[in-house]
Amino acid sequence: MALSRDELERLLADLDAAMPAMMAQYPDPADLNSAFAGVADEITDNTAAADDAWVFEQIDGILKRHGLWQPRQEDRPPDE
């Protein structure tokens, strides 16, 4: 069952608040990415289709706020 917008907002706020501790616990970028993806996947797996785009924007915002955002492969310009 999909989570409500209020539940999604709470989980995303919890993830954002946990980032400093997560970054300290996983200093290796690959380990941090894996840990972050695990939590983010739990959120996105329970997101209604109508909220998908909004949730991904929020996740990108969390990554940007913590200096970790990288464009998704499909958002990158093609190699020249």
Describe the protein in words.
The protein has 80 residues and is mainly alpha-helical. The protein is 64% helix and 0% strand. It has three helices and no strands. The protein starts with a helix and ends in a 15-residue tail after the last helix.
Write a concise synopsis of the structure shown.
With 80 residues, the protein is an all-alpha fold. It has helices at residues 5-25, 29-44, 52-65. The protein has one domain.
List keywords for this structure.
single chain, globular, 80 residues
Strand content: under 5%
Give the biggest sheet: none
Oligomer: single chain
- The residue-averaged pLDDT reads 92
**Spatial extent as radius of gyration:** 13 Å
| Overall domain count | 1
Q: Which helices and strands occur, and which strands form pairs?
A:
Layout: H1 5-25, H2 29-44, H3 52-65
